[in-house]
Design brief:
Elements lengths: L3 E8 L3 E7 L5 E8 L2 H9 L4 E7 L4 H8 L5 E5 L14 H14 L13 H29 L16 H6 L4 H32 L5 H5 L6 H11 L8 H5 L1
Helix pairs in contact: 4-6, 4-8, 6-8
Length: 247
Amino acid sequence: MNEDKYIGMDVHQATIVCAVHNPAGKCIAHSIIETTAETVRDLLRGLSGTLHVTFEEGTQAHWLYDIVKPLVTELVVCNPRRNHLLKEGSKSDKVDASKLAELLRAGLLKSVYHGAPSLRPLKELAHAYDQLTQDRVRVMSRLKAIYRARAIACTGTAPYSHAQRDKWLEQLTEPAARQRAAWLYAELDALSGWRREAHNRMLGEARPHPAFKRLVGVPGLGPIRVAQLIAAVGSPHRFRTKRQFWA
């Protein structure tokens, strides 16, 4: 029988709890499967009819999205912050999976955008660049904190200069503090190298994108910002209004 089936998945690191509802809202099947690509595919291929699937945005969402999307008619990766019904009544993985299936059947879920797989490498590289930049700034702040704690003036970028590094370390008379600063300098050098590599690979991934040449010509948008923008937005057509896009 080619009827609609609504499948709620409560995803965990080791297992996925699945609930299957029919169009009348009756739960017709429950199962617990391993969190592996093959078991997910086997479950969906074993179900007949028109399949509608939902699970919450989380750590495995991107991975699971790529597996499920080709096998179903509708896939909704939902925003867990808006699923207030899941917080009501009894709580268990089985109950949560059934509630997700029922919310999907009623059309009450707010979806989270997942871009095309072709943009996934750029997203990963942009995340890596952002994280390495944040880590580098954090190490620089820790270095200056060592000097400030000993009333050593350290304004500007001079404390990070390779040419003057020995001079700065000599100002730290405590051996332990000097060693700590030396380790931070080594960490800074490593992060700077990785950040340059991430920068180059991110731009190399972004340049072939059709929007790159157009956006890089916009005043105030350099290559780095354009690459980050493409990675974050994916497609501007997913927004209903310009106001949503700019937010």
